[in-house]
Specification:
This protein is of the alpha/beta class and 390 residues long. Helix 1 crosses helix 6 and helix 2 runs parallel beside helix 6. It binds zinc ion. Zinc ion (ZN) binds next to helix 6.
């Protein structure tokens, strides 16, 4: 089967266009999981759901008021509910935060403290300073936190850690300016949010007959809140479904397909997959992760991790057959990070160019930008790379 582009586009259209947001444990996420399972079963694969408890969080209403006047604010993801009013204290550095008495104050975090999203507690990439910021906030336990977004005109949540239990909101830069200039005045934060018991699921598909060493092809199917996630990562999930359909015609290729369910908000959900192996490198020949492909304004990239020299050389020759694609530096993130630290040869297929922060994780990551030709290129390339490991 060829003409991958059209087929992948149909899957992307279904996941991002018809289903839309697939935030972990939310209804759209489970609908997407059902669709993935259905396609895989049609290919004759056995599908296993590795289910992990994870809360289904949503907010119904958020109000921020400065001296009685409403301001623009969004609740941070996983924020507990609250209704608090207290004088506001602007804080721009770790030193200011560590020195502040926040028992009866609401801190407005800006500058250095919100130059990046607050790092989740379980993150392996968190720096010492990142940990100290989280620790100081938890020790001081202010009634609520206001975070000022570091980019003009952007408004995604700056705190999104289900283990961080202080209520918080994010405000756009313009509102941050008003707040900073109103230090000491009373600000009121009301968040009506709910966190219900739910499940996250990694979906794992293989042929009944497949045993022993296999090549893992993976992509995450979850999204951030408030985005259809067409590029990130309906594209990768759609590509994997198309490869499942294509490989159904090549039963001799030993593949295991993994649709990760927690990439955006939970490392532990995705890590649960690799944790099932005693010695992952003995069972997994190679891993190929697809995260973010098919954007019309981006360039298809392949990064290598722990790939033996001979295979890397052959892979480079394959990439040369696709003049629109290129090799790129290794980038330690996403779901390929579970494999190469075990010495498993790993490839990450993605795209570079247009800055991700401009559109990924926002409502702008929609179908409009997705190009069937770019999808075709990435999937055709992936299929040829898989065969190097057989
Ligand atoms: Zn992604």
């Amino acid at each position: 089967m060829k003409n991958f582009g059209k087929r992948v586009y149909e899957h992307v259209q279904h996941l991002a266009g018809e289903i839309g947001c697939r935030m972990i444990a939310a209804p759209g996420y489970h609908t997407a999981g059902g669709y993935i399972r259905e396609v895989l079963e049609k290919c004759g694969l056995d599908v296993e759901a590795q289910a992990i408890d994870f809360p289904y969080w949503f907010a119904e209403e958020t109000r921020l008021e400065l001296d009685g006047k409403p301001m623009d604010a969004i609740p941070n993801v996983f924020s507990p509910p609250c209704h608090a009013a207290a004088p506001l204290v602007p804080l721009g550095t770790l030193a200011e935060l560590e020195a502040a008495d926040l028992t009866c104050c609401i801190p407005v975090l800006y500058g250095y403290l919100t130059r990046e999203p607050l790092t989740v507690k379980e993150a392996f990439y968190a720096s010492e300073n990142d940990h100290r910021v989280v620790q100081a906030l938890e020790e001081k336990r202010p009634p609520a936190i206001i975070a000022v977004h570091p980019q003009l005109h952007k408004r995604w949540a700056l705190i999104e850690d289900c283990q961080f239990t202080i209520p918080s909101v994010t405000v756009p830069a313009g509102e941050g300016l008003r707040l900073i200039r109103s230090a000491g005045q009373t600000v009121s934060v009301k968040i009506c949010s709910q966190s219900k018991a739910g499940k996250a699921k990694n979906l794992i598909a293989r042929r009944t007959s497949a045993a022993g060493k296999r090549i893992v092809l993976c992509a995450h199917y979850d999204t951030k809140i408030d985005t259809p996630g067409a590029w990130d990562n309906a594209s990768g999930a759609g590509a994997l479904l198309t490869l499942a359909e294509s490989l159904a015609e090549s039963p001799s290729v030993p593949v295991e397909l993994v649709f990760f369910g927690g990439e955006e908000y939970s490392m532990s959900v995705d890590q649960a997959y690799i944790n099932r192996f005693d010695r992952p490198a003995e069972d997994i020949l190679a891993a190929i992760n697809l995260d973010g492909i098919g954007h019309a304004l981006k360039t298809t990239t392949v990064a290598f991790f722990e790939v033996p020299a001979a295979i890397e050389q052959a892979a480079r020759a394959v990439i040369r057959q696709f003049p629109g694609a290129m090799q790129t530096e290794p980038w330690p993130a996403s779901d390929h990070s579970w494999f190469y630290p075990h010495g498993i040869p790993t490839l990450a297929i993605s795209q570079g160019g247009l800055l991700n922060l401009d559109f990924a994780h926002t409502p702008d990551d929609n179908l409009e930008w997705i190009s069937p030709e770019k999808l075709e290129e990435a999937v055709d390339l992936t299929e040829k790379l898989i065969r190097l490991f057989v």
